[in-house]
Amino acid sequence: MTAPLTALLPTTERALLHRIAVAQSEGRAPSLTGAVARDGQLVWTGVRPSVEGDETGANTQYRIGSITKTFTAVLVMRLRDDGLIDLQDPLEKHLPGTGIGEVTIAQLLAHSSGLGAETPSPWWERSSASLRPGLPDVLGEQSRKHPAGRRFHYSNPGYTVLGSLIEAVRGGSWEEVLQREILEPLAMTRTSMEPQAPSAQGWAVHPWADVLLPEPAEDLGLMAPAGQLWSTVTDLCRFGAFLAEGDDRVLSAASVREMRTPAVPAESGEWDATYGFGLQIIRRDGRTLVGHGGSLPGFVAGLWVGVDDGVTAAVLANATSGPLPSLVATDLIQIVAEAEPGLPQIWRPLSEVDQELLEITGPWYWGTYAFGLQLLPDRVLALQPLTGPGRKARFTAAEDGTWIGQDGYYAGETLRVVRRTDGSIAHLDLGSFVFTREPYEPDAGIPGGVDKEGWRGLPS
């Protein structure tokens, strides 16, 4: 047996500490704290306070700003999984009278609704929530900036609308639903609407002098689902582990994967960044990372997850600008993933043999393209090209004896085993494509038929 990786090497810890130390110093942050989890377990925390004896640490709350949106998105996905909404439903079906009822719930989740980025004046992050008591005050008279569904345009009001949707469907406040459906099941006891001691003071740092100005911490009121929460790096790492693996008490692994799937085209010139449902998705140094950044006056935050590496990192600072927590968090992931790459799962033989499935494994041909079909645990089939790049996908069993594609080109497509009258396999039908045991088998039912003279050479 291989022991679980419950601790990091001293050299890795030193590299992590150096990275947050540079970030705190160069970013001129009154304090900066970071944490790393691996395979769901917290393995490192570090803090760089600017005042000796400061209580700032891994248990200190900072405001996390727009990371709050990911929590709101999870609550919306729970509504869908409970059968209360469909993501393609127009908003009007569940929340009438907004004036934007034709936009879909999916478009709001993906910031493709066309709504404006901010509320009407005054600046909502530094003004009283009493100025925006209702959705008309949040959306304004000219709420639409782009046609719905055409492009990504980040929208704080859009997530405020989603918070109101949650309240309307659940029949309770957004805060109550959040506490009951996410924070309690995941034991996130240090995440809250209002700061709970110990918590950091938010500061503005003068751009041209090493002096500070305290920032206000306004209650965001109706805007809370877009950016209200306070949390710690340890709580965020716990949430990041959930975003990597799912948790049936909150949201299934399949629904979390759906959140991590790009839902909108990348912005022009931003081919390494896109957005899913409540999650930013980036490519960096060949690694796909999901997460979210956040900021409010006095605070900046970053939570990122390297799903393939099993590494999560959270970074929080109490400065309006300067440090770049998302960049630092992705660096922490890279440090751990490259210095201490995860061990592969131990190979184990299947506990039982399914002869019917075993019969369809092995090489198959789509025309002259060679593929292999492999049987994985839990009755999952994996199709992949035998040479070079090509279409590959995993398939899970459906109740009618067919198989449904889970990813890639064949996501959602149906794989069927077509048999002859004697019970032998004639071919596989994958979304109408015929896969045969030999290239262009004559009697396999290939559309258009196969030349009767068969394979031949060309005379010289």
Topology:
Layout (H helix, E strand, L loop, with lengths): L9 H18 L3 E8 L2 E9 L12 E2 L4 H14 L23 H5 L25 H5 L16 H15 L3 H10 L19 E3 L6 E3 L9 H4 L2 E2 L1 H13 L7 H7 L13 E3 L4 E5 L2 E10 L2 E8 L4 E7 L7 H15 L15 H6 L1 E5 L2 E8 L3 E6 L7 E5 L5 E3 L8 E6 L5 E6 L2 E4 L24
Antiparallel strand pairs: 1-2, 1-11, 3-6, 4-5, 7-8, 8-9, 9-10, 10-11, 12-13, 12-19, 13-14, 14-15, 15-16, 16-17, 17-18, 18-19
Helix pairs in contact: 1-10, 2-5, 2-6
The proportion of residues in beta strands is: 15-25%
| Mean pLDDT across all amino acids | 92
The value of Rg in angstroms is 26 Å
- Enumerate how many helices there are, as a single number: 11
- Estimate percent helicity: 10-25%
Strand sequence of the main sheet, in spatial order? 12-13-14-15-16-17-18-19
Helix/strand order, N-terminal first: HEEEHHHHHEEHEHHEEEEEHHEEEEEEEE
Number of strands: 19
From the N-terminal CA to the C-terminal CA, the straight-line distance is: 62 Å
pLDDT < 50 stretches: none
- The secondary-structure class comes to alpha+beta
- Globally, the shape reads globular
Q: How would you characterize the largest beta sheet?
A: 8 strands, antiparallel, barrel
